[in-house]
Amino acid sequence: MNLFKNVSTFLGFDNEYEESKLVLFGSPFDGTTSFRPGTRFASNVMRSESYGLETYSPYLDKDLEDVKAFDAGDLEFPFGNTQKVLDEIYDFTSNILKDDKTPIMIGGEHLVSLGSIKAVYEKYNDMYLIHFDAHTDLRDDYLGEPLSHASVIKRCWDFMGDNKIYQFGIRSGEKAEFEWAKQHTNLTKFSCEGLKEAVKTIGDKPVYITIDLDILDPSIFSGTGTPEPGGITFNEMMEAIKTMESLNIVGADIVELAPQYDTSGVSNAVACKILREMALIIEK
Amino acid sequence: MNLFKNVSTFLGFDNEYEESKLVLFGSPFDGTTSFRPGTRFASNVMRSESYGLETYSPYLDKDLEDVKAFDAGDLEFPFGNTQKVLDEIYDFTSNILKDDKTPIMIGGEHLVSLGSIKAVYEKYNDMYLIHFDAHTDLRDDYLGEPLSHASVIKRCWDFMGDNKIYQFGIRSGEKAEFEWAKQHTNLTKFSCEGLKEAVKTIGDKPVYITIDLDILDPSIFSGTGTPEPGGITFNEMMEAIKTMESLNIVGADIVELAPQYDTSGVSNAVACKILREMALIIEK
Amino acid sequence: MNLFKNVSTFLGFDNEYEESKLVLFGSPFDGTTSFRPGTRFASNVMRSESYGLETYSPYLDKDLEDVKAFDAGDLEFPFGNTQKVLDEIYDFTSNILKDDKTPIMIGGEHLVSLGSIKAVYEKYNDMYLIHFDAHTDLRDDYLGEPLSHASVIKRCWDFMGDNKIYQFGIRSGEKAEFEWAKQHTNLTKFSCEGLKEAVKTIGDKPVYITIDLDILDPSIFSGTGTPEPGGITFNEMMEAIKTMESLNIVGADIVELAPQYDTSGVSNAVACKILREMALIIEK
Amino acid sequence: MNLFKNVSTFLGFDNEYEESKLVLFGSPFDGTTSFRPGTRFASNVMRSESYGLETYSPYLDKDLEDVKAFDAGDLEFPFGNTQKVLDEIYDFTSNILKDDKTPIMIGGEHLVSLGSIKAVYEKYNDMYLIHFDAHTDLRDDYLGEPLSHASVIKRCWDFMGDNKIYQFGIRSGEKAEFEWAKQHTNLTKFSCEGLKEAVKTIGDKPVYITIDLDILDPSIFSGTGTPEPGGITFNEMMEAIKTMESLNIVGADIVELAPQYDTSGVSNAVACKILREMALIIEK
Amino acid sequence: MNLFKNVSTFLGFDNEYEESKLVLFGSPFDGTTSFRPGTRFASNVMRSESYGLETYSPYLDKDLEDVKAFDAGDLEFPFGNTQKVLDEIYDFTSNILKDDKTPIMIGGEHLVSLGSIKAVYEKYNDMYLIHFDAHTDLRDDYLGEPLSHASVIKRCWDFMGDNKIYQFGIRSGEKAEFEWAKQHTNLTKFSCEGLKEAVKTIGDKPVYITIDLDILDPSIFSGTGTPEPGGITFNEMMEAIKTMESLNIVGADIVELAPQYDTSGVSNAVACKILREMALIIEK
Amino acid sequence: MNLFKNVSTFLGFDNEYEESKLVLFGSPFDGTTSFRPGTRFASNVMRSESYGLETYSPYLDKDLEDVKAFDAGDLEFPFGNTQKVLDEIYDFTSNILKDDKTPIMIGGEHLVSLGSIKAVYEKYNDMYLIHFDAHTDLRDDYLGEPLSHASVIKRCWDFMGDNKIYQFGIRSGEKAEFEWAKQHTNLTKFSCEGLKEAVKTIGDKPVYITIDLDILDPSIFSGTGTPEPGGITFNEMMEAIKTMESLNIVGADIVELAPQYDTSGVSNAVACKILREMALIIEK
């Protein structure tokens, strides 16, 4: 016999690195999560659970088997040192981009997006950011720490500036954050209304999509640290993804699944399906 | 150092008793619950979990920090003696009312509302009752016991009489209860349709609001003893609360959260948010 | 005293066999389930949990107490031998039909329907099949096995042929299955649209209804092995059942509840309510 | 076909009432439980779970199939009225005794034993009581209520008097209870040391055995409302039962299993095995 | 960059196939499990959870890093066809043996051992079998099926014959099985007493070790389908492994972990540690 | 009425700060936990759950009501900045010591002990450290970070030096750590053997006791991030505490309870009882 070590990839991400256009990796970090931790387990669980899915999407009438995608596994982090974690993500993403591949990351808490967005922004500095979330994530700091899950979009704005960030589904935050957003980002409360217009405005400019899965109503996505009732439905998410099909997506991430809070496995299935659909619209 | 004992209040209910208009207390009793007990744990859990919330409501554009509210903790009950429990609630509520404050109670099973509603009714006997629930709660007795979670609204009707009680969201009960309601209460099946008209009719008369959280669909609120699919959505609940903003609310309660049946914590978040919104429309 | 052995039936199914028109039985088999097993526990749990329900349906304004129904308990199966299991179900169903009673079965995985549908089809070979499901179930085989939960409707088609099978709510399957369905079954993606037309077409012909409960959105029904977000709501299911009230239903089953994945008990309540409503439209 | 209603009994308790010497029944009441309720679910769960057991005991080299035993199911109680519950248990037990059968009861909280012990005591007033428990259960009252899970043995002492009660395994209680016991009962702290002597003293006098399962260490029995580490092992419990084999047991109960706190099912298995062994030593 | 697909092996089993002496593989099958399924998830979970362990054993003062071991991942089975599953295991094990490597298998239910033991026996037909278990596993058939988890050792005896099988820890079974064992196997009830003598008798003859983890007391190993209180402690298991250090072990398996029944993760840790220790005594 | 804000303290820790000798506080930090987080929830849960306990200890024949103890609540930490967290703990502990009170801390992960031990050491630099744990905690760093749960005792050694640290119950670590310990600490593998001698050696010198609760066998304490089977029993822990009754204890902590991994609540009860016993031997 000639046997190979046991390989574990996300469903359909079973191509070799060289031949792939899409590169998936996990950033299992939840070190600044203040309320309920656990997003560090998301990437590992999603790989296992993805085998409950089909590769074919009846929403997009496309099949993952037609996409060349690679799964690099998870980065390994020293817990307790936030800056080092972000640097590692930044470096890894930069290397993927150098090889002209598109990075797609599984979080981890939302802060991990900072490392990845920064790396993509440095390659594409006319880039837009589409941000799906329940929370504003626009604090200056959290208990004095500027690097926090609650301030990640503010940190992106630090280098992206005004008019480049679209926020959808937002329904929780401090009053001051909502006020600030009026001047600096395009924030839509509660829903994805206005996404079509955003897509039109962006046109063929490069765009990074960051999906904090808690944008979904916790009825369908309870596996997250800070559930916020009043979110969008799964079908609205599917609709949003279809709306973005025409975009020039240069990077993406899916964050804030904390599998242990939803013991039914539904949240895992939701996250996996969204990742499948995202892969299908990025790699056309 | 000068340190004070560890204090635990619901988010934003951190004012002193004297300065507060709103007084929160818990009635952790589930002694007549026939199916699945556990609502006794609600108030304690809601205090802890409320710190996952923000004080600001994007629904009402109001902030709990602008409300003077006090949390008196939980009443302590002898389990096994239902009448004594109701008497204790009645006495405590009466005392709050004497100090010209508005009581807001966390259950416990729905029967606890009887103690509180009675006390408020004795101060305001032109009072209306708005009742949100999945169940009619109009039985004469349950296995021979007149004091039961299944008969609490009937017991209120005993002293309030016809035309003063509005019931919304009802979708479970005996056929006879639905028939009886046609003559004696304003019962709306399944939804909150007709709430606007009720609010108009009530005008500035005093009104008590009792929210059995199982009016919500169990997709978003599974943490309850007797889940009844087919309920209202969280957004419909938010809408209902906004509709009642103009009312002269003289008492309120939120009952039937049984936290242990929803291990994801979503039901706790839902209950906390509804309590926040209720506080914001009572204390204007 | 004269005492009888402890009896355990589904709510309202407490008549004697002889006097009953409706016969309920459980088929606790999940031996071909490839992903997450557990549907073997459904029938036992549903009997216990049904006592959280009322016998009266405000949806249909009918009462189970007016229906003569019998609960035969569960068949006992040798695990590991799929064909023997199906034979046992077939034989038991045939015997019920010989006594001119209508069988209603609780699964178990969806494959158990094959035994029951075959028996009913042999009595009524102009029969239609209405199939509610998230999955196509139209594979030829699964890892080489033709008797699989993933191929049960294909196995029914083997003897029923074209134009007799209506499929609703389908949102997962291989591309080839969706293609095949276009020629051989009436498949509706995602929803129950077209059910009214189907009911009209079928008229008073005999019809068997098989409900894979995963047609429901996992927000309200997470207790199943392969949850598929994007399903129908509970109210849409209620509407569908009402739509079928006029049909001549000669057999039915409710499958794929796996109680342990939904520790809140909501899925059990959903399954019980659907069984109650089905009983009420079969036995008119 | 001629079918009978679905019967559900504890493993091996499948004889008719008339032919049986042993009569099992459940008292699913936990209305005075102050900490964590749930023992109301024990009897129903134990019936289902007993089918994971074998009827043969390698400990006693005896087989349940050689015992004539009957399962009467559960009594039905009005929650919220403690005295009525105890009366119902008393009446039911008395009727069993009149038919010259031996009652064996599944609780419920420990207070239910009061109804059963009283009935047995009235038939056999030279009776001894052997009490296995982690708790003294010797309070005069609990928050003013004399009928409480925490005072059940004190209530038995009220009519049994001094020197008739043996207590084993006790490791929790108020200081005053331990002091009181020194004068009035034979209390052994922590272990079952002295059981052999007790058995010798009792000789062939009638004896009632009440087993509060929390005498067991929570490592092996975590399914209980108030777990107390430092308890006896399962093998020590088996040993204790064997030690009592020679006794003239005229009644017994097994209380305080709260199945939902041990999701592994181990506590259910433990409770079932203890019930099997008890049945085997009662019915010789 | 040059990246490799994400690899997932058990802790320390990260060598290449060619260089390894020990070959690990998973047989995720639980198709004949009659009571509570779930052992199919064991191998996948053990790989993830093994990273909570250290490679160094203070029990044996040995380190996994000094062992050349390979993890081949899991076999893929068609559920519903028991014979095919056993054939696949048999073939795979035979191939490993042909390459002069030692197979170590993670179940799955105990029946999977039959495939592996048979393959090893054909190479070493003077082989002994040491069997750790709570259950006799000596039935002729289970509900008519000869291939069952409850008859696996009987099936091994079919080809191994008398005096070759040692059974330890047995505490559950039918009376007839215990009787049969007296003539045909060396069965020790409850404990591992006599293991030292067995090791002496076996000497340097080849031996296969099959560990049904439910030999352990469910206090430390609750993650299994049919927990049997009264088992051996973890330290007794460690002691037993050390006792077998001198043996000529030609094959081994560890079966019946069902991770979902122990949500604490303790059972996973126990299983992983036992696998580590077994690897350390096989590969000397 | 005159009402006070809802107070929440550990059972019996209800005295005022000024009058108390013992000061309890929580350090809810788990930011360097590499495997499974969650110890941040321990202190809050222990306060609630302590009300399932009695104040009287039958082990020590002492009562918490005779002890003057104060509960200061929890420190509030910025997650993501480990050094700041340790500084806060150090400062708080120092202030307690300045007021001549004895600090007793609830973790959190084990690293929090570093802040507290350092503060106590600066007051008493002839201090000994008794360390109960399953793990050596003697790494130099973890993935490059010197401040880690896996290196906390090494960090204490940095300032305490050789011959001052006693370690008991250790059964997991790298080989190099065990080797290092031979020269620098008094490490006892697996058990508490030698504790009596240690107590004799220490005499009336000041001593700090740090209890990592995972020293306990996970059968009785499964609520921890990295369970290690083979630990000490609860009774052995009680014995150890009694053995230390004569010591001059100047500080103590109890760490690594992660309540969510033991849904039965047993681990919480164990932790609470150990804290009660510790309080009883510190405040004599």
TrEMBL record, chains A, B, C, D, E, F:
Hydrolase as a keyword of this entry, yes or no, is yes
Among SUPFAM superfamilies, the record links this protein to: Arginase/deacetylase
Top-rank EC class of the record's enzyme: hydrolase
Which protein are we looking at?
A: Agmatinase
> What GO molecular functions are on record for this protein?
agmatinase activity
Name one matching Pfam family.
Answer: Arginase
Q: What EC number(s) has UniProt assigned to this enzyme?
A: 3.5.3.11
State the family it belongs to.
Answer: Belongs to the arginase family. Agmatinase subfamily.
Looking at the UniProt entry, the stretches that span the membrane are none
Q: Which organism is it from?
A: Tepidibacter hydrothermalis
**Keywords of this entry:** Hydrolase, Metal-binding
Coiled-coil-forming residues are: none
